[in-house]
Amino acid sequence: MMREAYDVVIVGAGPAGLTAGIYIGRAGLSVAVLERQYPGGQAFVTELIENYPAFPDGISGYELAERMKNQAEVFGAEIVADTEVLRVEDDAVSGHKLVQTAAGSTVSALAVVIATGARYRKLGVPGEDRFFGKGVSSCATCDAALYRDKHVVVVGGSDTAVQESLFLARFVDKLTLVHRRDRLRASKVLQDRIFELAPKVEFRWDSVLTSISGRQSVESVSIKNVQTGATDVVKCDGVFIFIGFVPNSEIVQGYVQTDEWGYIIAEKSTATSVTGVFACGDVRKNALRQIVSACGEGAVAAVAAQHYIDEVKGTTYP
Question: I need a labelling partner for 110 at 20 to 30 A (CA). Which of 36, 85, 177, 207 fits?
Fold first, then answer.
């Protein structure tokens, strides 16, 4: 059962948060990792991860997330799933940080690490919200089996978009990849793999999806060529959208400094504009959004939080 006070509370149990939990636990500090869903973040639903060190044959996101969670628990971190945090604020009396949860509990901490990650960005086109879960998805690993021998449209050109397309291609009869530019942004190795799947995979370059239509579920999409302005309707059974991310920083909006997109601005030490609050992983403004970099930032945040707590307790090593 979650206690009322810890040395450190980590909000978010993705790779960054779990790594921070490992390091803080090893430092002998009491630490709780609060997660509104399941430990692992987006890595949890990634079928195969090939660019994480020490796994030359790759590893499933689920297994990697489980290993990180178990390791954090071995070193004393308390992983508390299904716990949604509403806000983080200062206690005017003690100077401690207060973490308010949706269940109505308040957890006190000397330091807080924000590792809430980011969620998939929406297109904002007609039909997207109406058909989400009824043909519109942002998780191939979750939903690919529903489209066996069917036609799906994928929107995006990043590593994520191509990785998800490669997984979908195992199930579907046809996949149309829509990208607003004339070439993919994904890494070379992923581009080579997806191009090898033509003609099963069709590419619609310089194009955007403008609407999603259907009756009870997705039946077609409208695609516009941004160079010519020509629009046509493509019949399909599903739409998968991978066009970037939105940071999950709502719990600290107005509390710590963020940029115009909502990403938390933090120093190299991961310290935010509020003393005792640190940020790491995809919620933080940074250049690289990968599991390996999230883990590195989690370690940095943990050490920074430890040093801060030593100062608060007066136990800093001279």
Answer: 36
Burial of 47 (0-12, 13-18, 19+ CB in 10 A): middle
Measure the CA–CA gap between 85 and 35, rounded to whole angstroms: 8
Helix H segments across the chain?
A: 15-26, 61-74, 140-143, 159-168, 188-195, 291-313
pLDDT tens-place string over residues 143-177: 898 999 999 999 999 999 999 999 999 999 999 99
Residue 18 to residue 66: CA distance in whole angstroms:
10
For residue 52, what are its two tokens?
């994480």
Both structure tokens of 218? 């997705």
Q: CA–CA separation, 181 vs 204, rounded Å?
A: 9
- Residues marked as catalytic: 139, 142-143
CB neighbour class for 122 (10 Å; exposed up to 12, middle 13-18, buried from 19): middle
Please state, in angstroms and rounded to a whole number, the distance separating the CA atoms of residues 41 and 56: 22
* Sequence-ordered list of residues with C-beta below 8 angstroms from that of 225, at least 6 positions apart, any chain: 204, 206, 207, 231
Taking only the tens place, the pLDDT of each residue in 199-211 is 999 999 999 999 9
Tokens standing for 4? 């009322």
Quick check: pTM over 0.90? Answer: no
User: How far, in Å, CA of 270 to CA of 203, rounded?
Assistant: 40
Q: What is the pLDDT of residue 47?
A: 75
Whose CA is closest to 271, among 308, 316, 311? 308
Give the model's pLDDT for residue 167: 95
Angle at 251 between CA 30 and CA 248, to 5 degrees: 100
302 — phi, psi (to 5°)? Answer: -65, -45
